[in-house]
Prior knowledge:
- This protein is of the alpha/beta class and about 425 residues long.
- Helices cover about 15% and strands about 40% of the residues.
- The strands form 5 sheets. It has a 15-stranded mixed β-sheet that branches.
- Strand 3 and strand 4 (about 100-110) form a beta hairpin.
- The termini are far apart.
Amino acid sequence: MLSSLDPPRQSEGFVLLAALFFLTAMAMLASVGLTRSMTELRAANQSVNEQQAFHLVEAGLDDALVWLRSQPAPPAGTSSICPSGGDPTIACTPTSAPMGTYAAIIIPDPNNPTSYMHLYTIASTGRSSTNAAVSSQVSMVLQAPTFARYAYFTNSERLSNGTQLWFTSSDHLRGPVHANDRFNIAGNPIFDSQVTSTASAINYKTPPPTGGNNPQFNGGLSLNVASVQLPMVSTALRMAATAGGQWYQGNTTITLLSNGTMLVTNATKGWANHLTSLPSNGAMFVNGGSASISGILHGQLTVGASADVTITSNMIYSNDPQLDSLSTDVLGLVAERNVVIAQSAPYDLTIQASVMALNTSFTVANYQVGPPKGTLNVYGGLIQARRGAVGTFSGTTGQKLSGYSKDYQYDMRFSNLAPPFFPTTGAYQQVLWQDTR
Length: 437
């Protein structure tokens, strides 16, 4: 016979069973939560380790870039380099940092020995200190640009006696312009590309707006930029001229011919208008004297001199790149002293070349002697340590009194093509960045 107490005991069993299910469910939820928390914690730790490894990779890239910039010239040859030490054929010595270690290797492009625009790949690896299994690898390709990238460049915008030189209303510059000095503006010159200066301000002869000196900076103006160091000698060109190029001792006169040859006069060799070919590697250097040059270039050539380079007449390309964008004719003129336009040079002179005066100036002989000689048309670039005068103008009327007015136009090909063995800027431009994990 059933007791009257049995139904309540059955109810208690249901409550106990429900409580058991509830506790089981809570335990399962707690387990899922714990698993999820552990997964999130591991993911967070992994993310931290990956971020550490990536920052270490960047440190390796920075160290290698600093090492490259510290070299007097872009490294020659094709052998890999370990900036931190070690054998590049085995492994570069890792550098320790608070977050872990990193190592970088510099790999020159195999075409560098025969290329004017040297390329280098920096491959960097970083490993986290908390988990050595977590690493990051990145490669960056760099290009060593030459001074041919500038339409106009100077260290100083004054003559050696301190006289300021001015851009006037007759001046029109159509490419990148840089000065490690302050620009002097008198009138309304036109600058079609970016203009940069290490100075904090422009010096106006009569400040705008009331003074009427209102230059057009169509490509933008940037002040207080970093200085770009000009080399003292053309080391790479000298070396190339002695190894596959042409080396001349003493004053030399060169007349370029449109068929890819030239007439050379050099007393040391006993040559008088001697017909010869262009140097096979495009490098020609005159040591212990000056080089006088004119004519029509068919090919790729850089002419350097330990003294002056004198331009006696028009210097143009056989295939004019202004008419044919596929032209491969390029000329560099590099004087370790001055580049001088002869007083006998013609009215409205044209120079198609990137012209570089390493230690002094690009100037016109007796520039202060009138009458005016028209316009100096430079298609290429003009780089000089100290700006030289090419003419004079009236400070009252702005009228040209002597020498040339300037029309400087940048040869856009020089942004990725340079004359053979033209001096480099010491900076490096990034061409490609790639995560190689």
